[in-house]
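User: Show me a protein chain along with its predicted structure.
Assistant: Here is one chain, sequence first, then structure tokens.
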Amino acid sequence: MRIVARAPGKLVVLGEYAVLDGAPALVLAIDRYAVATLEPSGADECVLETLSPDPIERRFARGAPSGAALVDLAIGDARALPAWRGSLDSTQLYGSAGKLGLGSSAAALCAWAGAWAAYARAGGVDVPAPALDGLIALHRGFQGGRGSGIDVAASLAGGVIEFRLDPLGVPRIGSVRLPNSVGFAGIFAGRPASTPELIAHYRAWKAARPAEAAAMFRRLSAAAEAGCAAARGEAADAFVEAIAAYGRGLQDLGVAIGADIVTAEHRQIGEHARRHGVAYKVSGAGGGDLGFACALDRDALAGFETVVREHGFRVLKLGLAGRGLTVNELADERVGGRWE
């Protein structure tokens, strides 16, 4: 018996920061994957190999923790199961500079949780299939209690997701589509970012300046609502304008909270985007890693990509992952996006 599970990464399109306070967000599941495998070890000890991106092999007694925090969160009590051998590979979500901002930890958690639940059930232990609320709780535990859960939702469900936290903080998701005429690309600005650090800046600013924070929330929320409505209505022009408006809002938010949400590199990329008629914004918490570019004119988008490559930035050719977490299914195992 060999279990194989995989879960896609994510690219946040709309809703950063404001989603924490109830605004809608839009996120794409993208065709780069974390892959988990599990099988009986045939020995008295367990073996876990993690590749994220450097390989680490851990050996430990059956029922003991592996020492890999994300894996141990998803396992729980494993004493009733035989010793196992597993691997968790999220290298598709990394580049030479480290994390790309594609939700590597959420994808790895979803893949491992899916593989573990299947392995446990095959061993006669009643473990339910992973569910959104439980996975978000585990991922928040991994991140010190932080995070909306938007990246987990993308990895679990796949496709294009509209995500919102209700007044009680319960995640609500719905499946939408990008307008057919919209082309998009991810741009890596050159250095990984610390999402927890940026979120901490945001929360401290909110506490210190509640009136200013409320006004900024209204602005960001309005842009996110407009973009989500445009996606639901396949209104391409309105969708692209909402992307540009949200990007401007994030830049002003960074100034307000005293954090480099939109770095000098992202500002430079944004200038190239404007000259080519392309909408551009940071994706996720910002701070240096990933940006999202979109346009109705595919030639304009291609010209923009050429220019940013010439200026030393990385273009990620990413496609949509139509499905989220899959377990034990024959699937195309190619690497999804590649550097161009």
